[in-house]
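To whoever is on call:

I kicked off a structure prediction for a single chain this morning and the downstream step that reads the tokens threw a length-mismatch warning. I double-checked the sequence; it's 324 residues and nothing unusual in it as far as I can see. Pasting both halves so you can look.
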Amino acid sequence: MSGDDTLAPTTPVESGADEPDRLVLHARDVRFDWTELDLHWIPGEPFATHVINVLHLLLPEGERWFVEVFKQAVPHITDDELRGQVLGFIGQEAVHAEAHAGVLDHMDAHGLDPRPYVEQIAWMFRVVLGDRDLSGDREFAWLRTRLAVIAGIEHYTAVLGQWVLDARKLDEVGTDPTMLDLLRWHGAEEVEHRAVAHDLYAHLDGGYPRRALAMGVAAFALAALWVRGVRFLVANDPYLRGRIGGRRPRASWAVRDGRRGLIPRLGQLARAIPEYLRRRYHPSHYGSTSQAVAYLAVSPAARAADAAEREATEREAAGGEGAQ
């Protein structure tokens, strides 16, 4: 896959400027070929590579959990438009999980076995945040609590999605184009559906204390898991053996690489918390749907998925006409 024109980030658009109306969400059955991917896919930047690689460890299990929780919420939805958005969200998140799982297989093939860390993530989502032996009001309360946690996480994924759409430095340093397309396709869909989890929580509960507490838990957990994930990847990378340039990773490197534009700035991630905790907060106030849609229109993987879907629809229609 090549061609800078199709992989360059779209021009940033201020939120609220010529934004399209609420979109009809649909899953794009994307495919990525990782055969040419280097383990350090940001050339000469193993630390920045592994900071972003943590997403591949966290997301598959996390997004499968999102899907299961949202499926449990669907019968409680009384708004038809919201139900359609939730079903679209479920479809997109299911594809996201599988797309990132392919990167884990590639890591394993290059001598970095991600399973010990991923198994811990799976335990957290399946056991700590999984279904409990509850019924009635207590069961519904646990569902709403998990929806509040997902809404908080989705705020962060939208922030990260907007960041990667804007991250021109990744193009300038020669980041692997297939990986960059995965990140931007996923980021664009996160921006595209950024309001769904919040709206679902508001529809079924909407309580501010639960939302605020869930965000605190989500932010702390994500920060801790991200730090542990970077340490795990650097320690188990067969080319690094726990050290980069003879030194163990330091927190100051995250500040440095954030300033360089290779990873999100820590300040940007920290500011996301008070933004979310505003009582009048709504995800539509942050991020650009226009920019997300513009990238999805040029993403090689998304375009290939859309073309395959159109071809399948045309074949099905032709087969139906022939049967008549």
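Update from on-call: the warning came from a stale cache, not from the record. Cleared it. Sanity check on the structure: Confidence is low (pLDDT under 50) at residues 1-6, 10-17.
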